[in-house]
Structures are given as structure tokens and as C-alpha cells.
Please model this.
Amino acid sequence: MSTAAQTRRANAIAGSLTLNLMRLRTFIALFAVILYFSFAAPNFLSTENLVLMSKHVALNAFLAIGMTFVIITGGIDLSVGSIVGFSGMVAGGLILHGIDLRFGYTVFFNIPEIVLITLALGVFIGLINGLLITRLNVAPFIATLGTLYVARGAALLLSDGATFPNLEGNPAFGTTGYAFLGAGNILNLPVSIWILIIVALGAAYLARSTPLGRHIFAVGGNERAAALSGIRVNRVKLFVYMFSGFCAAIVGLIISSELMASHPATGTTFELNAIAAAVLGGTSMSGGRGTIGGTIIGAFVIGILSDGLVMMGVSEFWQMVIKGVVIIAAVVVDQAQRKLQQRVALQQMAQLG
Amino acid sequence: MKGNSPSSGDVILRLEGVSKVYSGTVAVKHADFEVRRGAVNVLVGENGAGKSTLVKMIAGVERPTAGRILLDGAPVHFRSTGDAIAHGIGMVFQELNLFGNLSVAENIFANREIVRHGRIDHAEQERQAGELMQRLQAAVDPRVKVEDLMIGQQQLVEIAKAVARNARILIMDEPTSALSAPEVEILFRVIADLKSKGVGIVYISHRLEELVRIGDFITVLRDGQVTGASAMSDVDVHWIVRQMIGSDAKDFSTPGDQAFGDEAFRAEDICLPRITGGYAVDHVSLSVRAGEIVGVYGLMGAGRSEFLECVMGRQPMASGRIFMQGRQVREKDVGGRIARGLALIPEDRQRDGLVSILSVAENLTMASLGKLTRYFHIQARAEAEAVRKEVKELSIKVAEPKLPVSSLSGGNQQKVVIGKALLTSPKVLLMDEPSRGIDIGAKADVFRTMRTLAAQGLGIVFVTSDLDEVLALSDRVAVMSNGRLTAMFDRAEATEAKIVAASSVGHGPGAQAQRKEWLQ
Model:
């Protein structure tokens, strides 16, 4: 009997080892990508390049964090790319033109106020998404597809399709200093990275240690059971779409600040990159499963992959093919992990007797 | 030991020394099992005893690790369910395998559609499905979508599906778990009909009286091993229970004679209009005192579950008033009512009770996170402590509370649902079919827990369609029929006959006319 028990234990150990490897797969993928490019692409590991890449990745990571919560509740938010464009245009418009009150007066806000207004607008679009989904029972895909078009159209309407250039602002109106968001440094790290760190830590804390976070997972796992447990399902859903809109508005601000210009087409198809990062990080499209840490690693894998390939001079068309293959591979491994995980759980039950 | 080797009857299918090993776990050990022609071959055992695994091997869902399957004396290997079906083996699974978005006819003919000129002949399918459903005495329109049917009717559709395939062997895994008494009668008539046509039936159920009634041969499993096999005529319920759990089971926990406290809960004039007209819950008033268990008996569709849902705030169309300790509950939403001390243990734990991909711990504390939270931070230690306490008190069998709740057996899952409700510190517990689909051992645990809770001063309202259960557990018995509360008996005056009579008020001949009178 003891040999049987031993082989069983050996099996269990081998099983949990493979399982741990699979759990860390996104991390391993990230490591592999970095390792590969540090040989293949010159200057890849230079500090300037790493900082630059991080700034690129951060943009997608913000969107992906918001998207992760939405997907965990079983929804999807297609409108984030348009919110990026819209909020950039709002910020640019407020800096350059203020709000015209029609009596020959124009109100100008200072930069912190503009940032707050823009963020509030992002949250507001999220609120509209949420209300459509919870009150009017529109499917998340359709509701956010609608706001995708509306927000993009609104962004174009703000300037008749033109770019708001030169967002330096006017000292007389107190609208200078917008560049800080996109180009500023604190302790040698770009401001946008600091903001990402704060948002990511906040989101991870929310997911792990607050009732709201737990409710997000419960709603995605089984909405009926969540409702019967007294969870206010509609409020939870409103929150995730508002938070996603908030994240998108941050990205709109950062991009327009980096370029010191707002273009209404900014952010087109960003929502797809955000979904890809979330899925790569282990978020399940059927809801109930996902982590913020995984999503951020997923965003880094996608970002570093595309930047590295650019540095190696791989054609843009091949980049798209490679990105698609990586996403599919990630989901395939994810499924394999679920199976293995179930088996290990069964084994633990068996040992319990 | 009596009747250990049944020999009569001719055997269609024989399992010889069959074992099934899942990575590390032995589900079935060297089991012998015979399916006889024109007989009901009963398979019993507690949850996890290996019954489902055994029949899954017959149905081609699983392949045996060792041993042989002989069909008509020749060894066979089923590579898939399709393979088994081709050999005339049909199975009605415990979890219904139906397409809710398709019609009854489309479900019955799924994967073997009647095709004419390259197109599905819907009219013919519907005609044949209609005939089948009529044979099962189910008044179901074959064009109706399955998801719009009651769960009992869905079960009949599942049976119709297997019957339609002219199976020689029909496996039924817990077919009556969702059926009301009249529906069970219909099913038994169908089984008798199939038997007379020479079909060998494999029947799994937890309801022992049922097995004794319709079984011809019985095989008992415990921990994957066959502990007894006999002709049914040679054995009784006590023998079965002894083989199942190794000793005589303590039946129901007997009620203590403690005095009841003040009124804990009162519902007045609860009404729920039906979309099709009339009432699903028709002016029901009910009260329960602290420490009292009120059993609500009724047939399927009597409005019992709907009544509990109204009380819990799940039905926005409901009207009426409810009171806790004499104070009216004005909160409309589930959360508010939980805060006032109500808790519901739903009938369908997979659908309404559990978030199956979350862990045992997360499921347990889901409804009571507010109490474990300071400001907005869940206190991990307090949560772990609460989980540990419930796991111990309800004796939930789990290696590690972090495991997903889906890895537990049915009985333990039910305990998790109960634990979740208890962690909200309820004053009144509403339980909808608390023993549905769980094994004897877990049932006894659940009943004992109900008694203990009542002794601690909780008021309990539980709904059941099991007469023995309602008689043994209740301090008072309420009977519902057609949405109305038709009778209320004290424990002393409740008898089987009275309860059955009250549960059929408004049914049968003249019921339609009676209904019309009420509506006017």
C-alpha cells in the first residue's frame, strides 16, 4: 500500500508543479519575450528604451485594468477607445478655447480642474453604459458598441474633425503646464507610470480585499445566486462600467499631454488591445475569473512584443499575425490549466477520503 | 444474510469486476452488476458511492479502467455515448441535458431529426413528440421551448427523449427528484409500460420507499464496492440502509418538546399574480414563532417556492405585508430583507445558491461580508474564523476552504448554502426543498441542523414535497394547493390522509369551474 501511496503523492506533486508553471505562464511568457529581445534587438535593455516601452504599455494597461473588472462581471466594454479620443478632445478644447458662455464671456479652467472635468466625463459615459445595461437590459456588447460610435462622433463634432494643436495654454488663463502629465518625471519615473502604479495597486486592493471586489466576482460567477445573497447586482455593474470609463479618460489625458495635441481619432481600436491584455492575463470571458496582476503582465507581454518587433524591423503585418497567435495560445493554455486544476482539486478531495 | 445471489430473469448486460480509477481516486472497485430484461434494476448508495460512475460506464460516458462489459454475453467497448445509444442504451441524466432554447419536439429529436427532402420535417416531429408526451400523460405542447417548462415537465421531456429512441436499456439517474407525487405516479406507469415491452431499466434514487415499490432487483454500493445484491422481494428498507451506510440510520431527528417563543415572522395576504391570469400565490398568510418549524407541503406548482420568493423580495410583482417580531418589513430588496433577519435557502442550489467557480470560503461569506468589513476592508482573519466555524458546525467535508465549491459533493454543497445563510445571523430561515438531491447521511445532517437551529430560537419555514419529511420534522404543517393555503395542522392532528386531501383541493374534476368562481 505504501508504494501506491507514494506514487500517488509523487503524482500529486508533479501535478501541482505543472499547475504552478501554468499559473505563472504569463509571467514566463513575459520573461521569455524580454530575454529574446535583449539578444535579438540592440539597445533593448537600455534604460531609455525600457522607460519608453513602459510608457507605451501603461496606456494599454489602464484600459485593460478597467476592462478586467467589466469582463469579470460577465460584460464587455467596447467604448473605451472612443472615450480615450473624446476625453482628449474635451481636455484640449478646454485648454485652448474654454467654455463659451455666449455673452462675450468665456470661462477658462486651470489644469487640475480640466483634468477633473475630463475624468468626470469619462465616468459619466461609463454611467450611461451601465444604465443602458442594467435599467434598459441592453446587452453589454450592443450598449457599448453604441456608445463607441456616439463618443467617437462627439469627439469629431467638438472640432469638426480637426486636431487641437499646441496645448501649451495661456499663462493669463492659468492653463499652462499640461505637459507635466505626459512628459513629467518624479524620481526619474514618468508621471504616467506613477499614475499606473497607483491605479493598479488600488484596483488590485479593490479586487482582493473589499466587499465590492468580492461582489464583482460573485456577479460574474452566478448573477442569480449573487442577487439572492443580497448583493446589489445593478450597482456592481454600474461601478465597473464607470471605473472603465474613468480609466479610459486617464489614457485620453495622458496621450494628449504626451503629444501636446488632441486628435479626435485617437484611441481607435484600443479596446481590442485592452481585451487582449485582460485575456492574456487569465481573465475569463465568461466572467467570474481574472486578476489585476495578470492583466498588467498581459499588457506588458503585448506591449513589449510589439515594441520589440518594431525594433527588430519586423513588418507591421507580421506583428499582427504574431499578436493573434500569442492571444490564442494563451487561451489554449488557460483551458489546459483549468482541467489540470480540477484534477488536482479532485486528488486533494481523494486524499481527504 | 438473505437473498445474496439473485438468479432469476435473463440478463441483457453484465458488468464483471469493473473498476474505474480517476487520477488517484478509485470511484468503482471490482463491481459486478447485471441488467435484466423487463425488470427495474435498482442501484442505491450514498452520494459519492459510485452509482453515477457505474451507470456512466454503461452509457459510454466513461470507460472502465479494468473489468469487462458483456452485452448479450459478448464483450463490448463503448467509445462514446453515441456508441452506447447505437447498442440500445439510453440514459436520463441527473442534470438535465436539454436545450432550453429549443422546443420540446426539437429536443426529443435532437441529433436524429426527421428529414424529408433535405429539410427537417417539423410537423412530423411535433406530431410524434406530441404522441410521446401524451403517452407520458404530460400536457405539454411540443412546440413550447423547454426553458419555459417547469422543472418536472422538463424531466418528462428528458424521459421522452430516451423512450423515443426505443432503448433496450434505459438508465434513470434520480428521475423523481424534481417530480411531484402525481408526476411520480405517471413516471411509474411509464416504467411499468416499458417493462412490459421488455426494456431493462436501471433506476437510481435516494427515495427508498420508491425503490422498494418499483424495484425488481437491487444492488447497493458503498465506497465504490457492491455491498449487497438481491431480488427486491427478499429485502426491506432496513436491509438497504444497513448495506448503504454500514449500520441502521438514525432516521429524522425527533423534535424536542421545548416551548416556542414569540412570533418571529408573519406574512399577511401575500399575492403574486400569474402572467397568464390568476394567482401563483393567492392571498397566503402564515406565521412562525421563534423555535418553531413550519413545514409547507404541496405539489409541484402549488406556489410554495413562489411564496418563499415573495417573502424574500425576489418577486417585484408581489403584494402583501410581512412582519418580523411584529414590526413590518418595508425593505423591498433582498439585501434589506437579509438585514432584517430573513434568509432563503433556494431549491436549486446550482442556479440560485452557489457561485460554483468561487471557493468554499468565498461562497460562505458572500451574504455577510458587511459584518466582516471595517470601513471598506475585509478583515481576512475574521473571515477565516467565520468560515472555520461554519465548516466545523455543519461538518462540511472539505480539504481546504480555498477549493472551488464545485469540487464538493451535493450534500456538502447544500451545507455551504446553509452556512452562507446562517452567517447572516438570520432570525427566520426559509428553506426550499432542503434535502433535494442529497444522500441519506447529508440529509440526516441537514435535518439535525434544522432541529438545532430551532432549539436556538430560529423560526424555520421549509418547503417539501416529501410526506414523511414534513410529518417528521414539522411542528406545524401548512398545505398549499393551487397558490392557496388550504390547510394548517398542528403536529398532533396532522396525518398523511389529511395532508394529501388538502394538497389536492382545487385539482381534479370541477377544479376549473371552482377556479373561475374564485376569479370572479
